[in-house]
Design brief:
Length: 483
């Protein structure tokens, strides 16, 4: 199996412009039959060449959203607007970014969407507040790690209550990790969320830096440590061989990186009954990080990084490797000013190298769709959910963004044309999700404190793991099982 997964970078320029124009048209910025800016004006406004602008307008015309007249310009199609206004309305809550555009395209003229967005860091609180005030949305797109918390508070509707027939399709075609993760005992083992396009944890690297070192991407921790030492030799001040988000300042990004390393070494944090963190594999994971600091491969100041600092260092040429998520392709593109289609040419992406305790597994994350019990139009929310997860639509989105489809049929369709999807297909069958526990935010905070304590030498690896395990036990009420 090929290990260099080279994800297709997210959201090409024409696609982002198309979504922006579609949102403006739906918002009525041009009126029911108004004239859009010319290609030249759009090029100047968005800093794009003519090719992506022409493609965005051509696709909107092909979909009936606009009408193009030679020498007169491009106009909103009033028939399309009328059909949209006549469609039933669904309220949606999501994080800022590309979700609004994706959902509007998936819905087409069948549904009219009222979308409320927030920065990702504010989304959890905003959703809980909306539910508390009795104004929950019809459909919400939330981080997968919040599902257990929301379900414990009876905020979510089991999908089987909304559409039993589609649930059977979901269980048959969605990959096992994405089916089992959201079946919670409090709802009789029924799924309360549906996985959206996912991301994976891995190792980003500067292709030029590895080529200069005459090295291949590392497959094991031994390889990673040896490569890190080579990259660190003679490196100028301020340039690092390896970086990662390493403490509370990075929030969930730090937990994602740490859990990815634990998973790659065969370690776990929790089972439904016990806390399993305090074992040799977890201790060895933290010892490995300490060795990387001692070797001068990993700077100890990673404990101060915010969620995007490590990615920005790689983009700026101040790091040779970066441990993070596949979703960071967009950050790398923005920071380097590189067209999204060319990000994979500058930076490679491989699975997290395998630790000595294996067998290693890959860590998956991402957002999920859920229907709150407060939904005023749950049947319309379910119609939108089905549209957003339909195989044809998922294939198009994941081909464009480099995200991972949660459906086996879509992954099979992408594998022949995408090295990234082909390389992750087998791994995804047995992917690991972050611990599904209602008090996840508190568990995550303990994991962040654990790695910070080791990298700052406040605690030894063994002491840090034992302390974190005991604190997680107190939070969850699950006993610690020690080998």
């Amino acid at each position: 199996m090929r290990t260099d997964m080279e994800p297709a970078p997210p959201l090409p320029a024409y696609y982002r412009l198309k979504r922006r124009l579609l949102g403006d048209i739906e918002a009525g910025h041009y009126g029911p039959a108004g004239r859009l800016p010319t290609e030249h004006e759009l090029c100047a406004a968005y800093g794009l060449s003519r090719t992506p602008v022409a493609r965005a307008l051509s696709e909107l015309a092909a979909e009936g959203v606009v009408v193009r007249h030679r020498r007169r310009g491009t106009f909103v199609n009033p028939g399309w607007v009328a059909a949209l206004q006549a469609a039933p309305k669904v309220s949606v809550m999501a994080s800022e970014g590309g979700w609004a555009g994706q959902l509007r395209e998936a819905a087409g003229n069948d549904l009219r969407l009222e979308i409320t967005t927030a920065p990702f860091g504010d989304l959890r609180v905003m959703f809980r507040r909306a539910i508390a005030e009795g104004r929950g949305p019809d459909l919400a797109i939330v981080d997968s790690v919040w599902v257990a918390e929301f379900a414990e508070s009876h905020m979510l509707t089991p999908i089987a209550e909304l559409d039993p027939d589609w649930t059977a399709e979901h269980d048959a075609d969605f990959l096992p990790p994405f089916v089992g993760a959201y079946r919670l005992d409090g709802d009789g083992g029924r799924s309360v969320a549906v996985q959206a396009p996912a991301d994976v944890a891995g190792l980003w690297y500067d292709r030029e830096a590895l080529a200069a070192a005459g090295a291949e991407p590392p497959r094991t921790w031994r390889d990673l440590r040896a490569l890190g030492r080579r990259l660190a030799e003679g490196a100028p001040r301020g340039r690092h061989a390896l970086v990662l988000p390493g403490g509370p300042a990075a929030g969930e990004t730090a937990t994602y990186a740490l859990v990815a390393l634990l998973v790659a070494n065969g370690a776990t944090v929790l089972t439904p009954e016990t806390v399993t963190l305090d074992g040799p594999a977890a201790v060895e994971t933290l010892r490995f990080l300490r060795r990387l600091v001692d070797d001068g491969v990993l700077p100890s100041e990673v404990v101060t990084y915010d969620r995007d600092r490590a990615a920005r260092l790689l983009a700026a040429g101040r790091a040779g490797m970066f441990l993070g998520g596949s979703y960071q392709a967009e950050t790398l593109a923005e920071e380097t000013g590189t067209p999204l289609a060319e990000v994979a040419g500058r930076f490679g992406f491989v699975p997290v190298p395998a630790g000595p305790y294996g067998p290693p597994r890959i860590l998956c994350g991402g957002m999920v769709y859920c229907v709150p019990r407060q939904a005023r139009h749950p049947e319309l929310a379910m119609r939108l959910l089905r549209a957003a997860t339909a195989p044809k639509w998922l294939e198009e989105v994941c081909r464009e963004t480099g995200q991972l489809p949660p459906r086996r049929s879509v992954l099979d369709a992408l594998a022949p044309v995408s090295a990234f999807h082909a390389g992750t297909a087998a791994l995804l069958e047995h992917a690991v999700m972050r611990p599904p526990v209602p008090a996840y935010a508190l568990v995550s905070a303990q994991l962040q404190a654990m790695v910070e304590g080791v990298l700052t030498r406040r605690w030894s690896p063994a002491a840090a793991v034992a302390l974190a395990a005991d604190r997680i036990s107190a939070i969850t009420g699950r006993p610690v099982v020690r080998p």
